[in-house]
């Protein structure tokens, strides 16, 4: 999955459950996930703020998908792919 994103020049915002999914996180990250706190490592204020900003962006995308589902646009696209460009 990350190879396809990297080839297309795209990235993805993910929740902390996707930590470790990126195969090149240091060189050229494609999946941006929040930080997790552990018993021995509490999050710093900057890490908490980064998590908040990431959550804000993810929420906007999730609301967009919810609207598409409520408007049932995606069912029309599944039925006939020619509708995808007109929608």
Question: Could you walk me through the main structural features you see in this protein, from its secondary elements to its overall organization?
Answer:
By secondary structure, the chain is mainly α. The chain has one domain (2-86). The chain has helices spanning 2-8, 45-70, 73-79, 83-86, and strands spanning 12-14, 31-33. A two-stranded parallel sheet has the order 1-2. The radius of gyration is 17 Å and the shape is extended. The model has no long low-confidence stretch (mean pLDDT 80).
Which tags fit this structure?
about 90 residues, two-stranded parallel sheet
Write the layout of secondary structure elements.
Elements: H1 2-8, E1 12-14, E2 31-33, H2 45-70, H3 73-79, H4 83-86
Parallel strand pairs: 1-2
Quick structural overview:
The chain is mainly alpha-helical and 87 residues long.
Strand order of the largest sheet: 1-2
How would you characterize the largest beta sheet?
2 strands, parallel
Helix and strand pattern: HEEHHH
Helix content: 40-55%
- Which blocks of ≥5 consecutive residues have pLDDT under 50? none
Strand content: 5-15%
| Average pLDDT reading | 80
Distance between the termini: 27 Å
From the alpha-carbon coordinates, what is the Rg to the nearest angstrom?
Answer: 17 Å
The number of domains is 1
The oligomeric state of the chains shown is single chain
Q: In terms of structural class, how would the helical and strand content be classed? A: mainly alpha
In total, how many beta strands?
2
Shape: extended
How many H/I helical runs? 4
